[in-house]
Amino acid sequence: MRKFLSTIWSTKGLARWILLVGVVITVVFVAFAIFAPWIAPFDFNQTRDAAGVKFPKLQSPSGTHWLGTNDQFFDIFSRVVWGARTALEVVVISVLVAGVIGVPLGLVSGFIGGWIDRLLVFVMDALYTIPSLLLAIIFAFLLRDALGGSIMAVALALAAIYVPQYYRVVRSTTVSAREATYVEAARAIGAKPTTIMRKYLFGNVVQSVPVLGTLNAADALGTLAALGFLGLGIQPTEASEWGYDLSRALDDAQAGVWWPALWPGLAIILLITALTLVGEGLNETLNPALRRRRLLPVRFPSKATPTDPEMAEAAK
Amino acid sequence: MPTKHESVLHESVLDVDDLAVHFQLQGGALSRLLGLKARSVKAVDGVTLTLHRGEVLGLVGESGSGKTTLGRALLGLVPTTGGSITYHGRERGDRLVSEMRGAELRRLRTDLQMVFQDPHAALNPSMTIEEAVGHPLVIHGIASGDELRQRVSAALERVGLAPVERFLGKYPSDLSGGQKQRAVIARAIILDPEVLVADEPVSMLDMSVRAKILQLMLDLKNDLGLTYVYITHDLATAKYFCDRIAIMYLGRVVEIGATDEIFANPRHPYTKALLKAIPEPDPEKQVPRDLPRGEIPDAAVPPLGCAFHPRCPEAIAGCGWESRDLRALLEEHWTRRVEAYDDEVALIGDLDSLDTPSTTAKLGSGGSGEVRALLDRIRAENPDEPLWKGVTDIEPASNGVEVHFQPAGSPALRRAGGVEVACILYPEGAPDP
Amino acid sequence: MNSPTVDLIDGQVTEPGAPGGPVLEVRDLRVWYGTERGPVRAVDGVSFDLAEGEILGVVGESGCGKSTLGRGLIGLLPDGSNRDGTLRFQGTDMLALKPKEQHAMRGRDLGMIFQEPLTRLNPLMRISEHFSETLKTHDKSISKAEIERRSLESLRVMGIPPTRFHAYPHEFSGGMRQRLMIALTLVLRPAFVVADEPTTALDVLVEAQIIRILHDLRANYRTALLLITHNLGIVAEACDRVAVMYAGEIVEIGDAREVFARPQHPYTRELLRSTISLSTTGLNYIDGAPPDLVEPPPGCHFHPRCPDAMKICASRHPITRVHPGGSLASCWAADAREGLLADVPVVELEPLPREEIAVADEA
């Protein structure tokens, strides 16, 4: 971890800027998510003010409703802020769950090999070939009965898409790390297979996971919005979700009512971009194949060479 | 200086009896689909030797000789396919390493330990030196907390990584090659083992540190009463370091005996060749000219007879000459006479049929007389070529000739003088030349 | 089936030991790498000549600039490095050439043999295709028959049978691949070749075969060879002259036999003593490790590890001088032995109190 942070800190050039811009935008959204109750003037499903007066429908931006209201009488600014919380909850849960399932599976499969490995490779490859949105729709459908249109249901549906990715990355690094001398050395000191996986392989094969995680987070956000857009995501009564709001707003946008579509759309684009930037930045920093040595020009100081008459003669 | 021989008690620690380690090679996808038999490589094939308590036994050979596989088999790191390894432990008595599995095998590692060739690869890059060196104690539940720390510090000090505080928190990548190898050695001795298998422990190190690490290993041996198996391709360090040496070639021991005797009076032609090939920093020594040709052959299809015969400068009729040697002879002839290649290869025809090992080689498609004449010409070019000694008959067959070779078995280790040699030149009961 | 006798090509009769003028003239060559801590002085003021058909061995511990020198001479340097000084190849000032002109000379005039041959061969190309591509790069009009003639000739000298001409790299054993690499380098007849640890990955017997091939190159190609190795035995057997490098400088250079028999520089002596050979009767080693080349020690770079160090060694860089026997060395102690330091104050010649070197401070 110490090494990890120091590598990031020592990043230079373009990678540093990519990382910095990504992190700053992400931090803003994270702040939205954490402090939503204090930042947002209203609740995400609030349609009346404290006095019980219903909000106007599709009202343009004003002093009370900074970004206006939408066709469901919701305050758009509050929806966007609360939406950040939903988005981050879904992203964090889905990436964590995918990692928690995918990483150990990949590790065990790659280390033990044999029929377990072959079976898992088959299943994961099969999952991987299905387009991710389609897969998310299928899982969202399947989970709907059990969990309804909740955040957890969508997060798990998304996690299912990403498990094969973690599995594949970790398995392939495990397969090559398994042959490393330090693994043989661990066997030679009498380590059990579980100890070898835990203490010798895990730390070395998870290094590509943070990069994958941030890239998946960006992808998860897009898929979440797409599910919401298709009406298969989180129900509006459960939480505020940008994709759903965007889909509701599209018809009105054609009629010249632009504000309900603009803000959730912008939020989606900004956060996806930011997370992608963090992922790319981390990749540049952590991936040794991409990391370029910073080149510095070499200037030679004029050197007073001790001239020895014999030397030039004898060098021949 | 090591106290050669003085410390060698003739009490055995490890007995290896007719040991075989064969690996199944994964065939191609097609052959697996068709269920064809996978090829097997005989990495170690019928090795018998004894490791005496307190000695340094050298396993010397080129890559592919099976020396590393044998060393790993001693610790049970590779499954054996035949024969046995018996460990005569000081505390727990005689045990068969070759039949141990699981927990029993892991417990064995408190008595038998290993030092690896590449110190950088042998340490987990994400473990500090303190964790890495102390891990054997943690794994076997021997020490924890303060005691663990003390023992790690003691081991590091023992191998010269002092002041210890400077190294405890370091990662392998922060250390130099020599320092890493010291850490690997510390990890190996922390369990207080009886036997240390050292697989080329200095060959990856800079020459200025090699002697230091060897000196450390000698000191440890004397202070801790260790027994070493020293695996190397370098006869010079083996000469200095070992009490006895086993020369290996293609999975077999071809010569074994006391170091002094082997160096003073090498018997096997392979041993002689190795000795001659070592580049010596002696200004008077010239580039050696009469070295064995070729390289160590494929262990999946070893040569018939003695495995060394195709390269042997002293080979005679009964060494196991065969069809593949004839192919090599033709290729060497064409290497020398490139201009004749096109015409002659047409005369000889298909060469690939010679690749199946056999004492009968059929070749030629341009008429028996012409092929025979070509072989005679090649023979006349170099009449001393030992292959011809093994030819019993050349007879016409269809459009070419059939060359018959004298069949031969693989020579067994036999006593010759003070050592044991596996070579037809040293038959049973023969007086030592 | 003896190894092919080495024949002379095209009737060119060259007698080893009677070389012509210098192929390479190196004067005060510096090759530095830029880093954030400052320039790494990997090669810092190296001078020597190399004659036609001559083999110069370069030895030293790792991190002393051997490989950088080899690459610097043929211009195969990574980005971020720079060369300075004089480097004349057959009279041409190499450092004044444009990158494109330098590139054109590589292969044709300047060759390089690497340690790991397999990584330098394209696994999807037959050997014949490798040769044809190499030859065509430098002569577009070359005929197919000519390609085959020259390739087979080159293979013959390396002892590779013509039956293997159309094989793929993976069908060759390690030693064969290295010969193949040498054959590919030499098919263009470069006048100067750098061989960087060409036998380190090979077994003893194969190593000896390759060393013999390199040793015989002068008879076949009149190539000047710079042989970089950590193995002093190889130098003793195959080289005419030897250069000992320490911390980016050549500390001693001279006739190989002379240097091995009467080393002038303590580093050469200690390096020879620490080499384990068949005649070794006791273990010797050099304490400490080669210095950081960003900030090498002042004075003689070797002084912190040198058993003969005097006070002057820690402050003044030694002068390169010819010593009896003809070797060139830069060492105050060697000068003092010959009575050359009469005008240096006696206090400067007192032994340098050595700083304690910890056991584990090593390479």
Description:
Chain A has 13 helices and no strands. The relative contact order of chain A is 0.15. With 316 residues, chain A is an all-alpha fold. Chain A has helices at 2-9, 13-34, 36-39, 76-112, 114-129, 132-147, 151-178, 181-188, 193-205, 209-229, 242-254, 259-286, 309-314. Chain B has 433 residues and is α/β, with parallel strands linked by helices. Chain B has helices at 29-33, 67-74, 102-108, 119-122, 129-139, 145-158, 165-168, 177-189, 207-224, 235-241, 259-264, 269-277, 323-336, 341-348, 368-381, and strands spanning 12-24, 40-52, 56-60, 82-89, 93-96, 112-115, 195-199, 227-232, 244-249, 252-258, 360-363, 391-397, 400-405, 414-416, 419-421. Chain B has an eight-stranded mixed β-sheet with strand order 6-7-8-3-9-10-15-14, sandwiched between helices. A four-stranded antiparallel β-sheet of chain B has the order 2-1-4-5, covered by helices on one side. In chain B, β4 and β5 form a beta hairpin. The longest helix of chain B is centred in the middle third of the chain and has 18 residues, at 207-224. Chain B is elongated, with a radius of gyration of 25 Å. The two termini of chain B are 32 Å apart. Residues 1-8 of chain B have low confidence and may be disordered. Chain C is of the alpha/beta class. The longest helix of chain C has 18 residues, at 204-221. The N and C termini of chain C lie far apart (44 Å).
